[in-house]
Amino acid sequence: MLDEQSYFVQAVRKGDTWLVRHYLNDGHDINSVSQGWSAVSSAVIKDDMDMVLLLLYDGVDVEREDLYGNTPLQLASPVSKGLDQLSMRLIELGAPIDRRDEMGSTVLHVAAAAGDPYIVKLLLMYGWNRNAKDNNGRTALIHAIRAGNHEVSKALCSPMEHTDRLYIPLHQLTACFD
Questions:
Q1: How many whole angstroms separate alpha carbon 78 and alpha carbon 63?
Q2: What is the CATH number of the domain that holds 162?
Q3: pLDDT digit string (tens) for 9-31?
Q4: Which domain does 148 fall in, by range?
Q5: Which InterPro entries match (predicted)?
């Protein structure tokens, strides 16, 4: 039998804006979790930008982790078609960009592998360390190169204002010039 939290998260998954608003107006906990998934994580996975924005504007916790320890920003990186808008809003609301998944990957690693130069530039602008390594010792640049994302590789090779000095190991440098 489903509890009240499960019904709320289920309404989010279905994209039922009216029912979600009804639950919120009745004082339902916007940060509740059902079967390991928060409402916002469910909306991000469904790529339901309207629902994500509704939850964000109603004060959802942008640091809330799902069953696997992923934040909404980490989930948005590989799945969202509205990635730039959603990621920007999450970052503006204080989503931690330095959180790592179980493989030691950050949002920057995932965005680099997914081939999204806009998000890569956005994360660098917000001060993320381009030289951070995952559990396998790979930087975002290595992820971009392995995925064949040349535009992202170039973005990662370009020095930006307000970031730490650019350090690119020699074996990665060839991706910067093509």
A1: 17
A2: 1.25.40.20
A3: 889 999 999 999 999 999 888 88
A4: 97-178
A5: Ankyrin_rpt (IPR002110), Ankyrin_rpt-contain_sf (IPR036770)
